[in-house]
Amino acid sequence: MFRVGITMRIEWVKILAETPNVCGGGTLCAIVYCCPHDCPIRNVALRRLGIEKSKYLEVKNRLGIRHDGVCWKNLAYCCSPLKPCPKRDRALQELGMSLEDYLRYKAELLEELLKYAKATEDEIFKVKVVYSYFGFLYVPELGKELRVLGQYVPDEKMCLPAVILEVVNNDELRLKIHGEYAPLTIYLPRELVKKINEAEPIIGKNFTEFVAEAVKEKLMQVLQERQGNKT
Fold first, then answer.
1. Which one, of 107, 211, 57, lies nearest residue 46 by Cα?
2. Which of 140, 190, 205, 224 is a plausible cystine mate for 209, CB 3.0–4.6 Å?
3. Closest CA relative to residue 13, chosen from 63, 81, 61
4. Separation of CA 103 from chain center
5. How far apart, in Å, are the Cα atoms of 12 and each of 7, 22, 29, 51, 112?
6. pTM for the full model?
7. Extents of the domains making up the chain
């Protein structure tokens, strides 16, 4: 069981102020920013922490601060201050809470949750569930080079690449593309990623190449659909 002194909790407030959501690459302590939705990434974090999902929900509901203006009507489920959220900020203002108050509240939540954790303190503040990667992808059919920013969940062998439609070194075209196309998210199921990893030594393609192909296929599908809608 974790016993937290005033000095340690102040340090936690500083850490939480600079910690993104778990799904955004935050360490396990960012579980305080997770919601009640049955998210596979949140579930990995709970498993790594050694906290039962039922206990996680019980603590957040028991120590919740209610407000009808936020998504789950409970600040315990609100996200990191690093992620802009007008609903959360409006609720804090109406409740008379400062950002510092919000972070202290999240530190109190963390203290309570860690009473039921099996992970070490070092793991809690250093281990991540989601890692980011960055690369370039050239799509011949478009005649454009795209920047690919993605996320990888090692525990689940799951890859979630987000494609940013951006032409390198061409500001005018970059603005045009951003105005016409929204970022796309491509989800590769865990079973597919597992098969890719198993096949890699046989067929000679690495995981990044498969991701690039999946991204390209999705891009072409979306572009064809949009072209069809215009005709």
1. 57
2. 205
3. 81
4. 19
5. 9, 16, 9, 19, 13
6. 0.67
7. 6-126, 131-230
Cross-strand bridge partners of residue 133? 150
- Rounded (5°) CA angle 175-137-130: 95
- Asked whether the beta carbons of 46 and 53 are under 8 A apart, the reply is yes
Q: Per the structure block, which two tokens stand in for 37?
A: 């939705």
Write the single-letter amino acid at 216.
K
Q: Tokens for 158?
A: 């799951």
Q: Report the DSSP beta bridge partners of residue 145.
A: 138
Q: What is the DSSP track for 26-90?
A: -BGGGGGG--SS--HHHHHHHHHHT--HHHHHHHHHHT--B-TTSTTSBGGG---TTS--HHHHH
Binned at pLDDT 50, 70 and 90, residue 168 comes out as very low
Q: Collapsing DSSP states into helix, strand and coil, what is residue 148? A: strand
Q: Kindly calculate the radius of gyration of the chain based on its CA atoms and give it in whole angstroms.
A: 21
- Residue 85 contacts residue 69 (beta carbons within 8 Å): no
State the residue for tokens 């072409």: 220
- Evaluated on CA atoms 16, 18, 24, 27, the torsion sign reads negative
Measured CA to CA in angstroms, residue 51 lies from 56, 62, 76, 81 at distances of: 7, 16, 16, 24
pLDDT in tens, 51-104: 999 999 999 999 999 999 999 999 999 999 998 899 999 999 999 999 999 999
The 10 Å Cβ neighbour count of residue 7 is 8
